[in-house]
Structure formats: C-alpha cells, structure tokens
Amino acid sequence: MARVTPPAGDPIAEARRQWIAHGWTDAAAGMTAVTSIMRAHQLLLARVDETLKPLGLSFARYELLTLLSFTREGRMPVGSAARRLQVHPTSVTSTVDRLEAAGLVRREPHPTDGRATLVALTTAGRSLAERATTALNRDVFSRPGLGDEDLDALIGAIARLRAGAGDPVTGS
Q1: Domain locations in the chain?
Q2: 3-state secondary structure of 24
Q3: Which of 85, 109, 111, 107 is closest to 97 using CA atoms?
Q4: Poorest-confidence range of 38-42, 95-99, 113-117?
Q5: CA distance linking residue 53 with residue 153, whole number of Å
Q6: Which of 6, 22, 135, 141 has the most crowded CB, counting CB atoms within 10 A?
Q7: Phi/psi of residue 118, nearest 5 degrees
Q8: Tens of pLDDT, residues 73-95
C-alpha cells in the first residue's frame, strides 16, 4: 500500500485553531476528538488491511470468520451474526456471499426455523481465521502504538462513549 506523505504540521490542531478563531470554541474540543478518532481509525485500518490483504481478507470477512470460530460448532444464524457484529443483516449476507464463493463458509438450513439460515465455517475458513488472527496479533494487536496505561485509558474512554450512544458495554 502506498504511503501518503504526511503534512508538515498537525492538521487536526490547525482545524481546532480555526474552530476557535471562527467562534466555535464550545465545539472545538468535540470536533478535535471526533476528527482525531476518525484519523486514528484510518491509521489502524490501514495496518489491518495491510496485514489481511495477503490472506485475501477484508476486516469484515475476518470478523465473521473469527466470530464463527468462537462458536462451539462453527455455525450460527445469519441474524445472530449481524447482531453480534453490530451491522445490518444485509452486510452480513454480502460478507457471507463472498466467503461462500471462496469456500470459507457454507449456508445451511436452520434445523428448527425454516425462515432462518445458518452460516457455517468450513475447514478452510477455520484455518484462514487462525492464520489471520496470528498475523493480526503479531502485526497490529500486540503493538497498537500505545503503552498499557494509555491503552487502558483509551479503552475506558471509548467504552464510555459507546455506552453514552446506547451500545451495550460491560466492564468499562
């Protein structure tokens, strides 16, 4: 992935300065926080994508494979997967389509609900999820760019932000 040349100064600090200069002082800290989180998301997603691309996975596909690998039998209803991943069911259906085409999952009829479909992990899907997790743990998750104390503070702050938005949050 081609790296973008960073600007000479901090564009987020400059945006905050401009917010204050334009009289939006009450919103400057919030704008700075939101913009900073969105930029951090871009930076982390680029690292994740760089790690997963050689494996032929997007983060959405990785998440679904990993979710399935955590279940006892490697399968669950599509609707349950959507709720656990906190995405719309059509997003999961699209992800399942791609994973199924690659032979990593298969659709199965639900044993008791004729309206529901199960998505089941294949042996190849389980193997790829394990390889991807090893790569992400090594290249991203074990060294996200912050020390333990900062990570704990960030996790707590984001949990409070999520809780305030109505997300179910435990142990922030």
Answers
A1: 59-140
A2: coil
A3: 107
A4: 113-117
A5: 30
A6: 135
A7: -95, 145
A8: 999 999 999 999 999 999 999 99
